[in-house]
Amino acid sequence: MTTDTESCNMGDFCLFRPNSEFRDVQSTEQPMKFIINVSGLRFETYKHTVEQLPESVLGSASKRNRYWDSENNEFFFDRNRTCFEAILTYYQTKGILIRPATVPMNIFVNELKFFELGQEALWKATEGYNGFEEQYEKPKNKLQCKVWELFEHPDTSRAARGIAILSISIILLSVVLFCIETLPSFQENNMKRNGTGKEEQDKDRYTSGPFIIEALCISWFTIEYVVRLLSSPNKWKFVTSILNVIDLIAIIPFYISIAMANSETDVSSLAILRVVRLVRVFRIFKLSRYSRGLQILGHTLRASVKELGLLLFFLCVGIILFSSAIYYAELGSNEKFVSIPDSFWWSIITMTTVGYGDYVPVTGVGKLVGCFCAITGVLFIALPVPVIVSNFAYYYSKERNRQMTREMNPEEGSSTSADNIRSLICCPTVNERNTCTGRKVKNGKIIREKRVDSSTEEGGPSEVMLQNNNGNPRMGPVNVIESNV
Questions:
Q1: What band does 105 get if pLDDT is binned at 50, 70 and 90?
Q2: Which of 55, 139, 362, 453 is the most buried (most CB within 10 A)?
Q3: Which residues are CB-neighbours of 50 under 8 A, at least 6 positions away?
Q4: % helix / strand / coil in the chain, to the nearest 5?
Q5: Does residue 426 contact residue 468 with C-beta atoms inside 8 Å?
Q6: Can you identify the CATH homologous superfamily of domain 33-128?
Q7: CATH code for 294-406?
């Protein structure tokens, strides 16, 4: 099933692709129009427009006549009006399906099923729906799978949620401790400790409260990382993941600092130790594993790399241009601007409209250059901002729709959004049998096998009990059905 995607309005989910289910309706007769009333909102369209999908409710005369209102001379549907606008657009554009951002996915899918737009429309509506959640593979071993979900996916159980809360608390504690260690009282204790012998220094260091708390936090981070690594289904993918690299960076500095503290220290090793200690601040990014807001921000920045690069290029051009201008404008009158590279600081501060005041032009020409620098900086920064904001709004709307769908299906809270929607439309993945329909996908086709009940005399298809993904049984005949996905 090939996909042809194009850009669409922010917040909407749309897929563009030629639809094989549409049929060209050619007629030499005068086009006939009819009115469709959807919950009080009237739509007017041509008959040949909806008959492009002859198997749908609107395209089939026998199906749509069931909703004929002879009193008002119109077809009446007591359905969702917002969804119907998208459905009518699907007919008019021959396959462009746009889900309104205000409509949850499960409601939209139910409307598509009611109007019988076909399997391809359902796939278009749900393809790529799972927000920015990556589809993760589960370990094959049952115990390994439980441990993996316990530490990696907080939404799967209460125990996993409890471990996530514990991890967040320890992360916050370690970050607070990192900040408190720089208070003057702690610095004085370190100075006193440096005046004693090496053995006493080590004893005081390893028995101090901050070190014990830090050691406990690092112990938890280490255990968590090792357990997740051992239980992961793909070790290489786990190690190279950005979030897991951050986790490793948060752990290593502690062990490096202990190793360096026990060795002979010199000026270079002290400088390295300061850098290692500074890396500890990256622990704050461990919260992104549990914060949807930080994940949205991360995906926004990733999607806006070109715009951010363009912004950086604009700023570099402006910095070089105005640094050169201010240097020659203030040459001989202001000792602050001693060179063009030294003027870079003034250009950056002025273009970003911060204005510290440590570098101030004194000549008239210099002040004029400063005015142009500030105005140009505002324009340069403002140019890519709308694109970045639209990317943020796009990912935010996808996450909001995912949450709306989960809230409307609380019993399915432990499964992913993609699993919920898949069970809703009863579409299995390739080579996977669906318990709702008994269908199996093979070579791009959905195939339902014929089942023969031995109790029937002629060996024909029998009435068997089918069960959907929600566990609700239903009765129905099992026939041989084959259709393209």
A1: confident
A2: 139
A3: 56, 58, 59, 64, 91
A4: 55, 10, 35
A5: yes
A6: Potassium Channel Kv1.1; Chain A (3.30.710.10)
A7: 1.10.287.70
Domain ranges in the chain are: 33-128, 142-186+206-290, 294-406
Locate all alpha helices (DSSP H) within 47-96, ordered by sequence: 47-50, 61-64, 81-92
Beta-carbon contacts of 141 under 8 Å, excluding residues fewer than 6 positions away, are none
Query: Contact 187/180 with Cβ under 8 angstroms?
Result: no
Q: Is 448 helix (H, G, I), strand (E, B) or coil?
A: strand
Residue found by looking up tokens 């919260």 in the block: 287
Give one word for 116, left, alpha or beta, with left for phi > 0 and alpha for psi -120 to 50: left
Backbone angles phi, psi at 30, to 5 degrees: -65, 130
Statement: the pTM of the whole predicted model exceeds 0.70? no
Instruction: Tell the residue number behind the tokens 């729906």, with chain if given.
Output: 129
Amino acid identity of 205? R
| DSSP reduced 3-state for 11 | coil
38: β partners = 41, 77
Q: Report helix, strand or coil for 40.
A: coil
Classify domain 142-186+206-290 by CATH architecture: Up-down Bundle (1.20)
Q: Which two tokens stand for residue 405?
A: 């769908």
Q: How confident is the model at residue 440 (pLDDT cuts 50, 70, 90)?
A: very low
Neighbours of 270 (CB within 10 A): 10
Evaluate whether 451 touches 461 at the Cβ level (below 8 Å): yes
Q: What's the rounded Cα separation, in Å, for the pair 57 and 50? A: 9
**Are the C-beta atoms of 363 and 337 separated by less than 8 Å?**
no
For 250-293, how does the pLDDT look when each residue is reduced to its tens digit (9 = 90+)?
888 888 878 776 665 555 566 676 777 777 777 888 888 888 88
| For helices 209-231 and 198-207, angle between their N-to-C axes, nearest 10 degrees | 70
Which one-letter DSSP state was computed for residue 235? H
CA distance 23 to 149: 47
Strands 74-77 and 33-38: parallel
- In DSSP notation, 384-429 reads THHHHHHHHHHHHHHHHHHHHHHHH-GGGTTS-HHHHHHHHHT---
